[in-house]
Design a protein that fits this description.
The complex is a heterodimer of chains A (592) and B (249). Chain A is α+β, with helices and mostly antiparallel strands and 592 residues long. Chain A is built from 15 helices and 21 strands. Chain A is globular and about 75 Å long. The chains are: A alpha+beta (592), B alpha+beta (249).
Chain lengths: 592, 249
């Protein structure tokens, strides 16, 4: 039998990790990516990667890491895969170190570790403040090595459009669009792994990269893959608002001692450094004495909202608070946080060594995603998922520095699992559904190109982003969620009237975007309707009308399936695996 | 203030064979705009300054925080990243063109895959035995990490190649970015097993000897990578390697 052929879609950490394992196991991997894989969104991760290596004499253990992750996720994550991830994490750090990641070191030449949110241990390995970049490059280099040995084929500049399913509903390949020639093609495979990242674009502006539209997830969702816990969206407490996007200011700033504060009096016009300590309100330290500035992100984000909107204490009446590093010496800052300080200085024009930064919460991470089993396979045979695009490791709120480890771990699981699945796969009947799927995609393309409407897709997208940001981020009311759902239905209707200002067949970015937009709209309904259904508050999902966690009704995974009906997805609730750690109240104002 | 606008001139080319034309745009000014947000505005309202309908601009971009390396272009004559090009810091009209040293795809999009091919040529990776658990990596002192980390910050934007007078078809020069990666991997305790091969790959035509020390690369690098130092160090190592190979006959 020929070596199994696996298609991996997405070349961030999860996709590259899957490809490496496939190549190493003798399989043959075809890697599809919109951008050259070295430019994938993983490159943006800043602060670090968690692993209980216990190199600081604190008695840290993988069990502690597991407990912090489950507790931080408000008990919504299935515990079996999370436990396995935390146990694998120290080995993953060693591997990355062997691959040449320039992690910061201790004087003795060992790996250095820093503090991050939601834990009391130094558990985060880091390479300056550009850890994601360094990890992505290390995996990219290993994949380039396999590529030069002929074990991996890269299809960069191709966008995934759909899975090819045979008459029994088994995946037999994909269809993809060449973003230069606009050529539509189908590619055969014995299994496919989606590693297509987060869905930031449905919120208009977020900390995500341009390619993080969720289009691929939505495409397979519309083909029958379940979408789980869509309502769990992480809003990072510290981002820099911008005209084109929200730029992340890493949690590592607080891990290295950064302090969040506002002037105690509203309308205090003094420059921040002239405001004496006694006139500053370090509200996180006051409210959460044990964790201080390092409470989990959902907690810090709600606290900032409260200070700005209830206490009316935003700087100059604006929705902004200070993130202050000016008390830390320059050498330490440059050595450990150089990359993010440079971002602030370049994009805001103010030196954060000298002046406290002005920050505000911004949409950052997608905890929910494609439903997968403990082998990373979705409910559609042959479609696997790994990384941010699946739902499995972070429950209701992700802890900082757990995303990089979950991407690599998930990728490492999915690759070998896809191979063993493929080895026992029966041959497809006929062409495995390729011709039919190509024809379906060709029809969508031709309809879109020839549509004579009046709606600009980029304007529709802005309206979607405004609605999602207003109603479906930090604070959620059923009335607002209802309005958001109605708005999306309206936008889906107007989408039928979309007009491309560019109808050419060469590097047509509006065409590719318009296809993504349809998928964004469909996926948004999973987020909104999941939030509507969940009448409780848990992790990042907060409803003031239902302020408490309700385990009896909602210690459940939300599972959405596509109906094609105007009412939107069908939702059901699935039990959560809580076999190792019994759910207990989650509070950060005291020891857990 | 309410009616303040910004002026842009963008070089358009609908395909590699099509003629290039300049289009003028006038857009509403907003605080904190960068070149990318201006192009997003054009996509939402694709009309030129004289009211003619046009198409959204084709350009590469992704992270918009100067770490993915996608959006390199020439802005007012300077090769730089469009995301970190803040409108308020630029002289108007802002003239935007594609990089000139790479095959044009469309508008501001060019094909920079030559850099990734060069990285294959010099084996820019650490040849690990496998991804199974083999325990801790080698000890590396902070002093070594502090040399390697800046080199490892290269975002493959190719600005250094665009501005280099020697980077052209005649010389086949690999450019500063690749040479810096050779220094990085030769400096890794495991990566240096390929040191000789990498140096030989840079020893002939198109190798390190093509560098004319114009020092444009280090000026243009958005990540302040010490490129000229890397070129000097690698040049010296290449010479030593050549001498060794000569003596070995």
């Amino acid at each position: 039998m020929a070596a199994p052929r696996i298609i991996v879609v997405g070349g961030g950490l999860a996709g590259l990790a899957a490809v490496i394992k496939i190549a190493e196991a003798g399989g043959s991997a075809d890697l599809f990516s919109i951008v050259p894989v070295k430019r994938s969104h993983s490159v943006c991760a800043q602060g670090g990667i968690n692993a209980a290596k216990n190199l600081k004499g604190e008695g840290d253990t993988t069990w502690q890491h597991f407990d912090d992750t489950i507790y931080g996720g408000d008990f919504l994550a299935n515990q079996t895969p999370v436990k396995a991830m935390c146990e694998a994490a120290p080995g993953i750090i060693d591997l990355l170190d062997r691959m040449g990641v320039p992690f910061n070191r201790t004087p003795e030449g060992l790996l250095d570790f820093r503090r991050f949110g939601g834990t009391l241990y130094h558990r985060t390995a880091f390479a300056g403040a550009t850890t994601g970049q360094q990890l992505l490059y290390a995996l990219d280099e290993q994949v380039r090595r396999y590529e030069s040995e002929g074990k991996v084929r890269k299809f960069e500049g191709w966008e995934f459009l759909s899975a090819v399913l045979d008459s029994k509903g088994v995946a037999r390949g994909i269809t993809a669009l060449n973003l230069r020639s606009m050529e539509l093609q189908s590619f055969p495979a014995d299994a496919i792994i989606l590693a297509t990242g987060g869905i930031g674009a449905i919120f208009g502006k977020s900390t995500n990269s341009v390619v993080c539209t969720g289009s691929a997830q939505s495409a397979v969702f519309q083909q029958g893959v379940w979408y789980a816990n869509g309502e769990f969206i992480q809003v990072h407490p510290t981002s820099i608002p911008g005209e084109d996007k929200l730029r992340l200011m890493s949690e590592s700033a607080r891990g290295e001692g950064g302090r969040v504060w506002v002037p105690r009096t509203s309308g205090d016009k003094r420059p921040p450094r002239q405001i004496p300590e006694s006139d500053r309100w370090y509200f996180l330290e006051e409210w959460y004495p044990k964790y201080g500035n390092l409470v989990p992100r959902d907690v810090a984000t709600r606290a900032i909202h409260k200070v700005v909107y209830e206490h009316q204490l935003g700087i100059d009446g604006q929705p902004m608070v200070y993130l202050d590093l000016t008390h830390i010496d320059r050498a330490t800052l440059d050595h450990k946080l150089g990359g993010i300080l440079e971002i602030y200085e370049k994009f805001v024009g103010v030196d954060p060594h000298q002046e406290p930064m002005k920050i505000f919460p911004g949409m950052h991470y997608t905890m929910g995603g494609l439903w997968v089993d403990f082998n990373q396979m979705t409910n559609v045979p042959g479609i696997f998922a790994a990384g941010e695009c699946e739902y499995q490791y972070h429950g209701a709120n992700r802890l900082g520095a757990n995303s990089l480890v979950s991407c690599i771990f998930g990728g490492f699981q999915s690759g070998p699992n896809a191979i063993s699945y493929a080895k026992s796969l029966a041959a497809a009947e006929g062409d495995g559904g390729h011709a039919a799927e190509l024809a379906r995609q060709a029809e969508i393309n031709s309809k879109l190109l020839n549509n004579q409407g009046t709606e600009n897709p980029f304007k529709l997208w802005r309206e979607l982003g405004d609605t999602m940001t207003k109603h479906v981020t930090v604070i959620r009311y059923n009335k607002g969620l209802q309005q958001a759902d109605e708005k999306i239905v309206e936008l889906l209707d107007r989408y039928r009237n979309v007009n491309l200002s560019d109808r050419s067949q060469w590097a047509n970015t509006s065409f590719a975007f318009a296809r993504q937009l349809k998928n964004m709209l469909e996926l948004s309904r999973c987020v909104v309707q999941g939030a509507l259904l969940r009448d409780e508050s848990r992790g990042a999902h907060y409803k003031p009308d239902f302020p408490d966690r309700n385990d009896e009704k909602f210690l459940k995974t939300t599972k959405a399936s596509f109906t094609g009906d105007v009412a939107g997805p069908r939702l059901e609730l699935e039990d959560v695996d809580t076999q190792y750690i019994k759910p207990r109240p989650r509070r950060y104002d005291a020891s857990k | 203030m309410a009616n303040k606008t910004i002026a842009l001139e963008i070089k358009r080319q609908s395909s590699p064979d099509a003629p290039a034309v300049w289009e003028k745009f006038e857009l509403p000014w907003r605080p904190g705009m960068n070149v990318i947000s201006a192009m997003m505005e054009i996509a939402a309202n694709p009309v030129t300054a004289d009211g003619q309908p046009t198409t959204p601009i084709t350009y590469d971009s992704n992270c918009l925080e100067e770490i993915c390396g996608s959006c390199a272009m020439r802005i007012n004559g300077k090769a730089r990243m469009a995301c970190s090009a803040l409108i308020d810091n630029l002289e108007q009209p802002i003239r935007i063109e594609p990089l000139s040293k790479f095959p044009l795809v469309r508008d501001l999009q060019v094909d920079r895959s030559v850099l990734f091919e060069n990285l294959k040529r010099v084996k820019a990776w650490v040849p690990i035995d496998g991804t199974y658990d083999l325990g801790s990596g080698p000890r590396i002192f902070p002093q070594v990490q502090e040399v390697n980390y800046p080199l490892s910050n290269c975002i493959s934007c190719t600005c250094c190649m665009e501005v280099c007078p020697q980077f052209n078809e005649d010389t086949g020069f690999v450019g500063a970015a690749t040479i810096a990666q050779v220094k990085l991997f030769n400096n890794n305790p495991t990566g240096k097993v390929f040191k000789e091969e990498r140096l030989r790959a840079l020893a002939g035509d198109g190798g390190v000897q093509e560098c004319g020390y114009a020092q444009n690369c280090v000026e243009a690098c958005p990540k302040q990578i010490p490129l000229t130092n890397a070129i000097s160090d690698v040049s010296r190592d290449v010479l030593i390697q050549k001498a060794k190979d000569f003596l070995r006959g």
